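Homework help thread (please don't just give me the answer)

Our assignment gives two proteins as sequence + structure token strings and asks us to describe the second one. The first is just a warm-up. Here they are:
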Amino acid sequence: MTITNYTVQSTPRFSIFSEDQKETLFNALLTVLSRTGADVHHEGARELFARHGCSANGLRVRIPPHLVQQALASAPRSTTVYSWDGTHQITIEQGRSYFGPGPTPPNFIDPDTLKRRPYLRKDATTVARVCDALPNIGYVQSLGSISDVTSELADVYEFADMIRNTTKIVMNWAFCRDNVESMHQIGIAMAGGEELFRRRPNFVFYGEPISPLVSGFHAIDKCMYCAEHRIPQVYTPCCIGGATVPATHAGQILVALSEALVGVVAAQLISPGTCVVVGGVQSILDMRRSIYSYGAPELGLMSAALTEMAHYCGLPMFSTSGCTDTKKLELQSGVEAALSIHAAMLSGAEFVHDNGYTESGITGDVFQLVLDDEIIGMARCIERGIEVTPETMAVDVIGAVGPGGHYLEQDHTLEHFRSHWRPTMMERGAHEDWEGRGRPTMRDRIIDKTRDIIEHYEGPIGQVPAEANEQIEAILAAAEKRVAAEAGSS
């Protein structure tokens, strides 16, 4: 592993693999896809692959190397996604990392009681507003799966409430194609029309194949819908080292990339040039406790390694950080989050999710998210690297001050000290000041800051056009009727 500053770009990055190792892994990827292949539980997708020269026997699809190469050549390296009001945008490109929460934990830490409870509809609004207020959170996911609405539409309600409570980009997931279509309609309503959405998409869709080497019906069906409508999407597996993929890290990365490439190829066959992000959660099964570890150092290592392979393929990466196996905000959660955030930042992954995950991905915690925001700010300071110019070397200033002097009154200091990273919660004051403030711990400061945001941060809800709100409510009502009709006919 090496850490270096590039000649032109001063951002520090580290490298896990040598060029020879990356080439070896890529060639093995082509072998896995062409020789072993993947099971695709979708007749239309299998027919699509077969029409373009793939072997399709039963569920098994084997993809020839030239088709993989063709897909990688057409998949874009850069795509821009916009907030619904046009105030924010994300350019998905190498060299810039955007951090956000993750979706779907069934539990949530109640901001008032600090107790673990089921995730509720109101929590999607809370998470969106907190994300909107945090400067280092670049996009919004829910940190949970809603339990107090029609279960088949929990994903749709979640998206409707998130997008109306943030001016940042939203990344959403769905149970099925019909729900993706409802979300697409919500995105169109928020954008102000279908043509505006097509030119300025306001969400990135997140879907998952199943390890090992399975694209389930709904996963590939949703992937195909997004490709048909040119919706930027993530197609990434959640691999468990030693359980659903090999226990060796190289084997895990190879399987993960192979699973993701099935979606990349399918999307490019449908709509060449449509954006597909690969990656996913990569960690190990703790064999002593039978838990999928979100705090293991292997998570940061393999996420960085997979980022390197994604970039070698010319694809953007969906990485993982800011998560912990512990059950409450404490020292362990800070240590585990800091290590994975730092690894993700130095790897250069484009999207980094699951910030705010606790209890091995079972519980979302907005307090953890606020802590992660502070850590991300620190990591950004390191990511900026050190600029070396005549101005920053300050040779003349050093000469003017000379030995034994100080720089407090120098114009050069006044011009540059504001570039230093400034904490919002880290303790740097004198002991007497800290005593006078009641000896607050980091946990105390995080709770105070989070509750202040929830109580006082207004967010954009009052800015959402009335027409868009009406359309969204109509879309939700139509979805309820659809689900009721499906239940009645079954």
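The one we have to describe:
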Amino acid sequence: MQGMYFLGGGMVLLSITGAGIYASSKVKSAEDFSTGGRRANSLLVAGTLMGTMVGGAATIGTAQVAFRFGLSGWWFCLGAGIGFLLLTSQLGRRLYESATETIPQVLAKTYGNQISPIVAVFTSFGIYFSFVANTLAFVALCSSILHTSPMHAAILETLLVLAYVLFGGVWGTGLAGIIKVVFVYAALLYCGVVAYIRVGGVSGLGTAFSFHPWFSLFGRGYGVDLAAGFSMLLGVLSTQTYFQAIASARNFKAAKQGALISAVVTPLVGIGAVVVGLYMRSAFPATPSAEVLPAFALLFLPPMLAGAVVATLLVAVIGCSAGLALGMSTMFTLDIYRQHLRPAASQKELLLVQRASLLAVCLGTLLFVNGSAGSLILDWSFLSMGLRGCTVLFPLLAAMFLPGWVTPKAGCAAAFFGPMTSFVWHVVCPRGIDPLYPGLLASLATLVVVSVLAKSRIVEILWRATHKDAPSAGRP
């Protein structure tokens, strides 16, 4: 029977490995590594978007929250789908037509180069929390299958992430992402159908659970769950990884189609995980919540299929982590290293730095593993998305639609005070209002107030220059 587990898992892993080997032949420069040379079709764009989003949080994390709270676990996938849909709008077009490789580069066109390191640092911290979430999902996966310690599981994930992306960049995450999403979608759909049948369909679910909180999208409270969905939407619009996917397209039509595919498929992925979580809650309530999805596969699927599903979850976690690490390394390489440390760096040097920074990101995550094991995976993901949104959202919207109204100092101040307010609020009031809201309010208020003050100062200077002999009382 063990041989059938390994056979099913091996077939999935070989498929992904083949895509990665092919991908490595496409990388000739740092631009190829970060944006694929702007040659991606709509399927490759969708593969990159979903290959990064549909990872440990969308699968294992969603089943975990559904096991504990019900349908509100769907917010991760639902909010991400809405965010992808907004990338098909005029905002997505303007981002694509900016012809840049990173979000800090987009902002620098309006606010100057001084905003680049601020945004790169805060959004990288945000992405890093998502990386931590995926590491926790991988730890749960290994615990249910191999019964390894959290640290050993995290070390194994580091090695697999490096092998997955180090020589492929966005080509690796995109091509492998297409295959991975097909496997993940099929696996979760099948698991969801099996769980639905085993629980007794609608009547069985109705007998096992009350409507609230189990079948409410707001089972954890309106404030908590609205913030969860909103943070996902903002995170998609504010994250380097998803911007890279759009920027890699051969034209905006391909980018739009890829984002639309992702907007439709991503929410559907979460449905299967939610049903599995509910069934495991009704039948095996003592199961560790982070392990319910792999445990279900091992208990109720044929051995070969169970091995394939577990390998698919493994690839989902690794692929998502790889995409997140790629986004962080790209911002560090282009917005900090090249912009402020080595402006004359060659393409070969930049490629080396980007790969070295990938290694640093992976190794740094090991520091979080022991102290965070057992926490809700999606809590880290929602915190991550919210922090990115507080950093980027309002400065980015203003840069895209009101570039003549905002000022460089206002953009820099908003990009700093937004995430700082969110982080401080999270530490000081961990059980109060979600930190997303004060962070966004601080960002918007700073952007408006500093811009208005700067504009009024400019008006005063111009008035004085043209009315040198007028009394001060006559100023506007």
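TA reply:
I won't write it for you, but here's a hint about the kind of observation we're looking for: Residues 404-476 form one domain.
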